[in-house]
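## Example pair
The file below holds two records. Each record gives the amino-acid sequence first, followed by its structure token line.
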Amino acid sequence: MIKVYAVALGVGVLGLIVIILGGALAENLRRESRDPGRLLGTNGKLALGAVLGFGMGGMASEFSPLGFNWQVSLLIAVAAALASVLWVRYSLSRS
């Protein structure tokens, strides 16, 4: 399961970097219609938050010194994904 969490974390971090750098580039070139954050929309941002939260929660629980088995790590990863979706929804409602 560590490989699944690592891939999810890598995809999430890569997506976050693309959104941040792509948004900065679109703003500097004055092409706001090409902003990756706008192109993804709300559902895309929620999906990216879920993938990133799943990867972070899974990796954190797998490498925890408490020695969780894979079922508990999966449950923690799903809870982290849900928490990150709620956080993205909250931050989008504030902007």
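Second record, same layout:
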Amino acid sequence: MMTQGKRFLIATMIATAWGLGGISVTAEEVTVHLTNGDVLKGELVSEGQVVSIKHSLLGKIDVPKAHVKRLARAGDSKAQEKQPAKKATVAKAPKGSSSVSKKKTTEPEPNEPASGFWSNPLVSAMTFEEWSKQFEFGMNNQRGRRIKEDYSLRYSMRRRVEKNDYRFLAQKFYGETDDDVTSDRALSSFRWRKDISPGVFYQTDTLYSSDAVKEIDLNLEQKLGLGYRFINQKDLKVNTGLGLSSRYRDDTRGTNSDYLLSIFEDVDYRLNPRFRITQEFSMALPPEDFEEYEIEFKTGVVSKVTEALHMSVRYQLVYDRSQPRDRREDQRFVSSIGFDF
């Protein structure tokens, strides 16, 4: 049987290869028409509340959506709407001639928008070059009557492509008290949200976790849900929704599979350009036994020190009534230093 450390090492290597390697895809050339009349041309990096392009001379440029009048893509018919149409020219025959010769200039048809395999938003997102990435490292070392050490690693990537929002997260917690292992947990998730109408979205969330202290060798979950965005402002977003999930677990009691009902809620609040507060809550319960519910609550404050450096304080609580009484609760505070790249 593959050990916990080997599984986490393989998962981390795959995540790092995705995040740093990527797949090369031809960038999309766009023209950004600003509300003040200026025009910028470059390669489209991402679009959403902020439109990002890569300019040939100025490098990466971020433009708030409120300042964008129109975004014209290569081959977009809108890019042609201000161009005067070419008229057909007619060559007049000399007087007295019995026939008239007409010559019409052929007008080239506009290019068709990109289509096929490479136009798929999920395929476009898999390039990974333009994802926002964060790596955090936290450590707590205590010396006294007891020797206590706790370590945490957190790696996340996020990107929005048109109506699609992608997020990948991987975490590792490890702790010892007087040389006894008190924490050894690894988890990762990939969430995909797609807007289907104003304020409404559906999402899929794939999760993997293991916990050596609780003797959970493998925990896999696949969630499907429908959500609604109650608040969708530039600095504040509040989402909630309902869903279904399937869970496969391999622990000391054997293997088992369950179907769960779930609710979720999350908040993203930017106090100012340097401070950000995030909060997530989810609850899952099997339809045949509501008493074996599982609750997960996470919140954190992130403070940017420089453009590439930040500090964070996070709190996480997991309470699972399907586990034995002494293994149901797992809560922790983690203070970390992080890097944005």
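Notes on the second record: The chain is about 5% helix and 60% strand. The chain has two domains: 4-23+123-340, 29-79.
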